[in-house]
Design goal:
Layout lengths: L2 H10 L3 E14 L2 E14 L3 E5 L3 E8 L4 H8 L15 E2 L5 E2 L3 H22 L5 H12 L24 E2 L2 E2 L1 E9 L5 E4 L3 E5 L2 E3 L4 H7 L4 H10 L4 E4 L4 E8 L8 E8 L2 E27 L2 H4 L1 E10 L4 E4 L3 E5 L7 E9 L2 E5 L2 E3 L8 E4 L1 E6 L1
Parallel strand pairs: 16-23
Antiparallel strand pairs: 1-2, 2-16, 3-4, 4-9, 5-6, 7-8, 9-14, 10-13, 11-12, 11-15, 15-16, 16-19, 17-18, 17-20, 20-21, 20-22, 21-24
Helix pairs in contact: 3-4
Length: 375
């Protein structure tokens, strides 16, 4: 089961949707971080409803936290042809027609990146590295972090809305996941105009693709995810097939206790009734710093890490440093770490290691490497 589908299953069992939260971070010392969060949470009951529409298809509707879409859309970027990336050499053209070639340092960096790309491709094709790990390593290689404060590598740190099309000008839309299953032996067509949302006296209609094209006209990554995830204005579903898409509407008024979703086709209406409740929550998360260290590092001198940490549910955490802050409630969970390390003369492939943070002595996790490649 791939990462995207695992995220979908997790979303189906979510009972609450986070509308907004205020988070404060406090460092007790260099090895411990305390995060205090005050959140307003909207809950929907039930959290998903399935009904048959005109005996032609089944329609499942489930409210989804727009904020949670940050992590889903971020993970999708790992699969945007990342294994087919190419490195391009660029020369700047001056007004007089002359060009500035790459510097020696830039050429060396280009060479090192190309060598790592080729190496990861090879290990992926031979089965040493899985698709998920390979894509995550290359994504980490290309996407430079905006800053390197260790708090950025807190395992549960919030994913930004960089690739989330349902965040518009810093505000989140109300999002619904819809699963359509064509039970018939014929092709069916579903129109987004058939969906209506009633909240109190407000009648809300879904945003169409054109709205997102205008809202994100300067953000191609968000647009790519719109075309991938959002229900198109008209959608065709082949016989005996299921499709998962998302529908977004203006943010709901949380004081309205009832939400009625209607699928209207001709004179027929299929209703999905949700009860809405609001609660406030305060949480405190204490995290400790852990350091990954290469055995025999004194012989190698690793200068750069590209670590891929995966939990038992398949969630991926990418780190560009060998230090991570881990919440204490995750100490006893099982994790796997893969990745590469760069030293002055080349790079190394780390051996896959299964571990628990609770078993790390002095908060150190030692890693071995299986292969050493010289530049």
């Amino acid at each position: 089961m791939d990462q995207f589908m695992k995220n979908q299953i997790l979303l189906f069992v979510l009972a609450s949707l986070l509308l907004f939260g205020c988070s404060g971070v406090k460092k007790i010392n260099t090895d411990t971080i305390v995060q205090n969060t005050n959140s307003r949470i909207i809950t929907f009951n039930p959290n998903l409803i399935t009904k048959s529409v005109n005996q032609k298809f089944d329609l499942l509707i489930s409210p989804v936290d727009g904020f949670k879409m940050n992590s889903i859309t971020d993970s999708l970027m790992d699969f945007d042809g990342i294994l087919s990336r190419s490195l391009e050499t660029t020369e700047r053209v001056n007004p007089d027609g002359t060009t500035n070639a790459l510097t020696i340092r830039q050429k060396k960096q280009m060479k090192r990146k190309k060598q790592i790309i080729d190496f990861v491709h090879d290990k992926n094709s031979t089965g040493v590295l899985t698709n998920t790990v390979s894509q995550a390593i290359l994504s980490n290689l290309f996407n430079e972090p905006q800053n390197t404060d260790p708090i950025d590598y807190l395992l549960t740190n919030s994913t930004p809305d960089t690739y989330n099309p349902y965040s518009v000008n810093g505000q989140y839309l109300s999002v619904f996941e819809v699963t359509l299953t064509n039970k018939s032996n014929e092709v069916i067509q579903v129109d987004i105009n058939n969906f209506y949302f009633n909240s109190g006296y407000e009648q809300l209609v879904p945003f169409k693709i054109g709205y997102f094209e205008e809202a994100h006209r300067n953000n191609q990554n968000k647009l790519n995810n719109v075309y991938r995830l959002n229900m198109s204005d008209e959608m065709v579903i082949p016989p005996k097939e299921s499709v998962i898409k998302y529908i977004a509407i203006p943010a709901l008024n949380p004081s309205i206790k009832k939400l009625l979703v209607k699928y209207i086709e001709g004179k027929s209406s299929t209703n999905f009734d949700f009860n809405v409740a609001v609660k406030f929550d305060q949480t405190e998360v204490i995290s400790e710093k852990f350091t990954f260290k290469i055995n025999d590092n004194w012989k190698i001198g690793v200068e750069y890490y590209n670590l891929i940490i995966e939990d038992s549910l398949g969630n991926i955490y990418k780190s560009r440093t060998n230090e991570v802050y881990v919440p204490r409630h995750l100490f006893n969970q099982a994790f796997t770490v893969n990745g590469i390390g760069r030293y002055r003369g080349g790079f190394i492939l780390l051996k896959e290691k299964e571990f628990k943070f609770s078993l790390a002595k002095d908060n150190l996790i030692f890693l071995d490497y299986s292969e050493k490649v010289k530049h």
